[in-house]
Amino acid sequence: MISQVVVTEGERLVHLSGQVAWDTAGRPVGPGDHGAQSAQIVRNIGAALAAVGATRDDIVKETVYVVDYTPALLPVIFGPLRTGVTRAPASTLVPVPALFAPEYLLEVEVVAAPSAGVPGRHTP
């Protein structure tokens, strides 16, 4: 589930740096497991957005970087990313040879517009 176009008008935008699967102590979570890493990234994104008064439903754009990508990984990666949200963001998946550390298989960068929850702004 993605949106082809998301429009924001004169709103506050929140840009998150790429999120990886580390816990609050900075330790890797789920080495070698795309699903476990996606679930941890969802928790990290949720916490980062909450810190600025936003939620995952406010995400309007995401870029997902994937090491060792195959099409079979789509539900493994996007299942956690879409669970608990009512709108899909504009989305780009980028297969990459490596991230900054070998433990990480996924990195997700998002842009959120906390007031973009107006119906009609997302088109499938």
What does this structure look like?
- The chain is of the alpha+beta class and 124 residues long.
- The protein is built from two helices and six strands; from the N terminus they run ββαβαβββ.
- The strands form two sheets. It has a four-stranded mixed sheet, with helices on one face. The chain has a two-stranded antiparallel sheet with strand order 1-6.
- β3, α2 and β4 form a beta-alpha-beta unit.
- α1 packs parallel to α2.
- The N and C termini lie close together (8 Å).
Please give the oligomerization state of what you see. single chain
Residue share in helices? 10-25%
SS class:
alpha+beta
Portion in beta strands: 25-35%
Molecular shape? globular
Mean pLDDT: 90
Q: At the third CATH level, what is the topology name?
A: 60s Ribosomal Protein L30, Chain: A
Could you tell me how far the N terminus lies from the C terminus, measured between alpha carbons in angstroms? 8 Å
CATH C-level category: Alpha Beta
Secondary structure: elements and pairs:
Blueprint lengths: L4 E2 L7 E6 L14 H17 L8 E9 L6 H9 L7 E7 L9 E7 L9 E2 L1
Parallel strand pairs: 3-4
Antiparallel strand pairs: 1-6, 2-5, 3-5
Helix pairs in contact: 1-2
Summarize the structure.
21% of the residues lie in helices and 27% in strands. By secondary structure, the protein is α+β, with helices and mostly antiparallel strands.
